[in-house]
Amino acid sequence: MNLSDLLRQHRSLVVGAAVLLPFVACAALAPFRDSVSAAIAVLVLVLIVVAAAATGDRIAGLVAALSGGVWFDFFLTRPFNTFTITDSQDVGTTVLLVLIGAAVTEVALWGRQQQARASLRAGYLDGALSTAEVLAGGHESQQQAIALVADQIVKVLGVIGCQFVPGPPHDARLAVLDHDGRVTRSGSPLRVERDGLPTDEYTALPVLHEGKTVGHFLLSSASEIARPSLEQRRVAVLLADQVGSVLGNRAS
């Protein structure tokens, strides 16, 4: 179990810490409020918000920002030990603290998402390349090659099932994952990123060799909506082309 899984498993503790740590920090700074500037206190609280946001939990980051604003007001603005602020500059500082905390949370989460996407892209390409290398060796039977590619397609697209059928798809009700990565049904494009792959019918992924359809994969996402990106769908097409090459070359 990696750190991200551990943090998700103990999410309530993470959120609880996001609430508590700003209180502890402000209470610790309270005896020194005459010598510690508001800017230093704000930086300390922003660091706590960054730490909360770094867990990948938006709620934890936002809670830390709000908690920091509340306890900064209580401990470090006049009149002390009340939730009242009389100085307009302190009001601005408190509001700015909360806004900065919220902004930092969103930036941190965006960074994590970009890192995760980059990691996924690397994984997809590695899978496609390793599959191509295995198939290029020519040691697998056609059934083994098809099973290997089908397994990779399931991983790339996030579908629950993928089975190979010889020949082109003949059922007009099927959605089709075209060679350019678009998904169409009866000629109309589907918004996969928003609505996901169809759950009421299979999605057909044609397998081509020299421009001729030699088979197709039937993709199933009936019990769980899959929303693969255009990039993921194009990788799946590349994988299907590997099967097309195997079938075409070994038939010739």
SSE topology sketch:
Elements: H1 3-9, H2 11-29, H3 38-53, H4 58-76, H5 88-136, H6 142-157, E1 161-166, E2 175-177, E3 183-185, E4 188-189, H7 192-195, E5 203-209, E6 212-220, H8 230-251
Parallel strand pairs: 2-5
Antiparallel strand pairs: 1-6, 2-3, 3-4, 5-6
Structure, described:
The chain is of the alpha+beta class and 252 residues long. It has two domains: 113 residues, no CATH class; 111 residues, 2-Layer Sandwich (Beta-Lactamase), CATH 3.30.450.40. It contains eight helices and six strands, in the order ααααααββββαββα. Strands 1-6-5-2-3-4 form a six-stranded mixed sheet. Helix 3 packs antiparallel against helix 4. It is elongated and about 80 Å long. The protein starts with a helix and ends with a helix.
User: By helix and strand content, what is the structural category?
Assistant: alpha+beta
User: Low-confidence spans: pLDDT under 50, at least 5 residues?
Assistant: none
Inertia-based shape: elongated
Summed up, the helix count is 8
Beta-sheet strand percentage? 5-15%
The tally of strands reads: 6
Question: Could you report the average pLDDT, rounded to the nearest whole number?
Answer: 85
Helix share, percent: 55-70%
What is the succession of H and E elements? HHHHHHEEEEHEEH
Features:
Beta-Lactamase, single chain, alpha+beta, 60% helix, 252 residues, six-stranded mixed β-sheet
Short description:
The protein contains eight helices and six strands.
